[in-house]
Amino acid sequence: MITYYDDRSVQVTSTAVRVDGRSYPLAELGMVWHRRGNRSWRVLAGRGAIGAALAGPLVAAVLGIGLAVWLHRSAVVTIAIVGASVLVGLGIGPLADVLFEHLDRSYARGSRELEMWARWRGRPVRLLHTGDALRFGQIYRAVQRAMEGNQPARRQNAIGTSGSSPRPRSRP
């Protein structure tokens, strides 16, 4: 038996797909497809907040420099205001790495709910429901590989995208 994917709630092997304690033998699975849900506004708002946190100190630095030039004070006061503004702008450096990492992980997880469906014993059944796009892609690809590995024994089973009928490929 070959294991294609394994985590705490999903296991894909060369014989079955197990999700949250339920087992679906590959020999009983027909076509497998996926559906995307609506965008999560909470995730998009979180990305916007990270962008604002990145841009805030830079905007403050630019405004400080503009204020220093606009006030027409002595050279010492102007240099002090410009220096403080530059320090505020540079203060984002260490924080930017952490914020960019959170932003990158947000895009890896995705902003939509994803579902994997299969025809099991003649009826559609939802195998998986998750908001983590990276994990979903790994599981979906594992199911593809498992079904391709069993293909000579079961020619009627196929995997398609978004419920479309699978088509033969022209490449070898």
UniProtKB/TrEMBL annotation:
| Swiss-Prot/TrEMBL keywords | Membrane, Transmembrane, Transmembrane helix
Disordered as annotated region, ranges: 148-172
Q: Which Pfam families match?
A: DUF6232
Q: Where are the transmembrane segments?
A: 44-70, 76-100
Its name, as the record gives it, is Uncharacterized protein
Protein's organism? Micromonospora chaiyaphumensis
